[in-house]
Design brief:
With about 120 residues, this protein is α/β, with parallel strands linked by helices. The chain is about 35% helix and about 20% strand. It contains three helices and five strands, in the order αβββαβαβ. α2 runs parallel beside α3 (about 105-115). The model has no long low-confidence stretch (mean pLDDT about 85).
């Protein structure tokens, strides 16, 4: 008795799932990319910048020795009084600079005093 081997038909591979995956990848990359337009930023000449309109009213420096406000060393317990007098004189903005040796505790305490005084404060390094 002779038994013939069963003829196996090859199934055609479905392209639907492959197309779905490619479409999902395309959609992902389209949505995750940024669609921003690059624009030129106008830069004025140095002659236009001499007005000083953007200068802060108060410049404070925090270093290992303590806090200096407008170049004058101020003890930690007198910072609030000094800021109140500057606020009454019309100061509205301040920039705090940190130098080497400034502790984080001094920085946080000084920032709290500046914010409590109502003076707009920016932090620089």
């Amino acid at each position: 008795m002779r038994i013939d081997a069963a003829i196996r038909r090859r199934k055609r591979m479905s392209m639907t799932s492959l197309i779905d995956v490619i479409f999902l990848l395309l959609l992902f990359f389209m949505l995750s990319s940024t669609f921003s337009r690059f624009a030129e930023v106008p830069i004025g000449s140095a002659g236009n910048a001499g007005t000083g309109a953007n200068r802060p009213d108060i410049v404070a420096t925090i270093d290992a020795e303590g806090v200096q406000i407008n170049g004058e060393q101020v003890p930690a317990d007198r910072i609030a009084d000094r800021l109140a007098s500057l606020r009454e004189a019309g100061a509205a903005s301040a920039t705090l600079f940190t130098r080497d040796g400034a502790t984080s505790q001094t920085l946080v305490a000084t920032l709290e005093r500046f914010r409590a005084s109502g003076i707009e404060t920016a932090l620089a390094r």
